[in-house]
């Protein structure tokens, strides 16, 4: 680690003062990203507690899908292939006879547009990986494991397979809990009674606590919060998520060298 | 429940062609959003300034998802969110924090 230190007092100097590179670790480390089995396993194991929470949400989705008239197999297929919780829940809420196909597909697209920003945010670390590794991992990207992965990569772990490992953990619990919820159907009744509707919010509060990087975080977060709260009142669907992220990024770009 | 399980197994496993088609269309647009962003930035050269902008996205998006959600809630949700923050701050244990939040929101809703 300190291979460039002078031999005499190199150790003492290296320990008493942080290396200059640590302050820009997030920029320096991306070059050392690997795609290993160890990274995959770390992602999977780290994500299991979160995936349990996602499971609570999946049960709620299963129940809603059942009420919308989807079969257990159809609900499971949707969870296995779409793998985007909020958009699935809103889609089954739009489910009607005759099926409003265009509305459903466009709404899902709009809700999930935020994934483009999230995927783009991974580029500094993913640029050394192969297209198969990148796009295969991105298929399994969900809100929760993306945030976990960003935390892991920002710490300088260089574990490029973390997104895939954590995503598979989400996938297993999401599909399993969807089946459970769809089968249990009416037995469970109102999800809000068990606080399941609060799980997603709780996950994001926890993630915000982890993504906090000190005072420099404050300006972009206030920009995002203000934009999202206002946009949510005037725009349909989840456009506010996209707008909040974009405004925060724009604010950061503007004040970059200010 | 058992009666339904036994009786409706065929129902449970049924796959309506139209429904499957809509699900596949939902899958297609979702995959497009998931891979589209990184595909774009991989094929366009990024400046340091733009990368600084991208680096604030994780937290900003989390806040954007959370903000309106909590604004639409009430004292029970705000209290439970505070509980999640508190447990995260003291223990850094996500599972504990989630359990505290869910137990908290159920308790607060019944009390408030």
Task: Report what the structure shows.
The complex is a heterodimer of chains A (258) and B (112). Chain A is mostly helical. Chain A folds into 2 domains: 37-211, no CATH class; 214-257, no CATH class. Chain A has 14 helices and no strands. In chain A, helix 3 (37-67) packs parallel to helix 11 (162-184) and helix 9 packs parallel to helix 11 (162-184). With 112 residues, chain B is mainly alpha-helical. In chain B, helix 6 (75-91) runs antiparallel to helix 7. The two termini of chain B are 34 Å apart. The chains are: A mainly alpha (258), B mainly alpha (112). The interface between A and B is large, with 97 and 75 residues. Chain B: Keywords: Membrane, Transmembrane, Transmembrane helix. Chain B: The chain crosses the membrane at residues 20-41, 53-74, 94-111. Chain B: Pfam families: AzlD.
How would the blueprint of this fold be written?
The complex is a heterodimer of chains A (258) and B (112).
Chain A: H1 10-16, H2 25-28, H3 37-67, H4 72-81, H5 85-94, H6 101-112, H7 114-121, H8 123-126, H9 131-139, H10 143-154, H11 162-184, H12 199-211, H13 218-234, H14 239-254
Helix pairs in contact in A: 3-5, 3-10, 3-11, 4-11, 5-6, 9-11, 10-11, 10-12, 13-14
Chain B: H1 2-7, H2 9-13, H3 17-42, H4 48-55, H5 57-72, H6 75-91, H7 94-111
Helix pairs in contact in B: 6-7
């Amino acid at each position: 680690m300190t291979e460039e230190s002078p031999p005499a007092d190199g150790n003492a100097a290296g320990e008493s003062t942080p290396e200059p590179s640590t302050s820009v670790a997030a920029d320096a480390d991306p070059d050392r990203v690997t795609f290993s089995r160890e990274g995959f396993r770390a992602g999977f194991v780290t994500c299991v507690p979160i995936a349990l929470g996602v499971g609570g949400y999946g049960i709620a989705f299963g129940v809603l899908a059942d009420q919308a008239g989807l079969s257990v197999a159809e609900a499971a297929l949707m969870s296995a292939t779409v793998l985007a919780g909020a958009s699935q829940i809103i889609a089954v809420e739009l489910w009607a006879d005759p099926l409003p196909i265009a509305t459903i597909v466009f709404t899902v697209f709009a809700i999930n547009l935020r994934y483009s920003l999230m995927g783009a945010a991974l580029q500094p670390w993913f640029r050394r990986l192969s297209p198969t590794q990148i796009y295969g991992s991105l298929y399994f990207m969900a809100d929760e494991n993306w945030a976990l992965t960003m935390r892991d990569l920002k710490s300088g772990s260089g574990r490029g397979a973390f997104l895939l490992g954590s995503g598979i953990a989400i996938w297993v619990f999401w599909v399993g809990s969807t089946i459970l919820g769809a089968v249990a159907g009416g037995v469970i009744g109102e999800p809000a009674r068990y606080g399941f509707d609060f799980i997603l919010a709780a996950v994001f509060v926890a993630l915000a606590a982890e993504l906090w990087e000190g005072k420099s975080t404050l300006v972009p977060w206030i920009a995002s919060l203000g934009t999202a709260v206002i946009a949510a009142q005037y725009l349909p669907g989840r456009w506010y998520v996209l707008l909040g992220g974009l405004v925060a990024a724009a604010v950061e770009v503007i004040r970059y060298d200010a | 429940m058992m009666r339904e399980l036994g009786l409706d197994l065929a129902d449970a496993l049924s796959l309506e062609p139209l429904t499957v088609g809509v699900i596949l269309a939902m899958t297609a647009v979702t995959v497009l959003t998931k891979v589209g962003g990184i595909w774009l930035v991989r094929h366009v050269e990024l400046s340091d300034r733009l990368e600084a902008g991208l680096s604030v996205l994780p937290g900003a998006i989390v806040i954007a998802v959370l903000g309106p959600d909590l604004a639409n809630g009430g004292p029970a949700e705000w209290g439970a969110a505070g509980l999640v923050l508190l447990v995260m701050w003291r223990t850094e244990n996500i599972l504990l924090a989630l359990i505290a939040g869910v137990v908290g929101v159920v308790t607060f809703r019944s009390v408030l």
